[in-house]
Design a protein that fits this description.
Number of domains: 1
Largest sheet: 6 strands, mixed
CATH topology: Rossmann fold
Oligomer: single chain
Shape: globular
CATH class: Alpha Beta
Order of helices and strands: EHEHEEEHEEEEH
Bound molecules: inosinic acid, magnesium ion
Radius of gyration: 16 Å
Structural class: alpha/beta
Length: 180
Amino acid sequence: MHNDIKQVLLTKEQIAKRVEEMGKQITADYEGKDLIVVVLLKGAAWFATDLTRAIDLPLRVDFMVASSYGIGTSTTGNVKVKLDVSENIAGKHVLLIDDIIDSGVTFAAISDMLRQNKPASLKTVALCDKAERRINGMEADYVGFKIPDEFVVGFGLDYAGDYRNLPYIGVLKPAVYARK
Ligand code: IMP
Ligand code: MG
């Protein structure tokens, strides 16, 4: 285990098993539909590469870069798009994927933006859900794990850009925040 991690919340094995289940569910739900997966970079990249390989349907993948965080641990509430989708999503079934839903601001803002391009449907997928932190009633349509209100890193999730490559999801030691 990485020396900065206090506790592993979700092991590599737990994540892999849940991602397989989510892929099966999505496969069943989208059978016969034109599916485009929109991945929010950077954090959702790790989850999305596994999830898309667990979806047994033809699909296309696109990426967006949006940010509402500086280097802190909670949203600034102001979502900026730094890279937009390049696929034409009009008339397509869109699945928007993020690593975690926290305040709900990112999913709410990006969903509004994507809806302007008239997708046939739009649903959201998050590997983790910190429901207690929601400020806007937004719910993800597919959730991997409900987790407690703690800042987590690993499997794509970062703190100030670090720890994304950890194969598990864990909680940082308090000393780490004091250091950065
Ligand atoms: P929201 O807009 O507040 O729902 O936050 C979603 C975004 O916040 C995610 O894409 C993450 O980048 C980031 N985020 C929220 N909670 C955490 C966390 O515990 N660890 C790392 N990133 C987080
Ligand atoms: Mg993120």
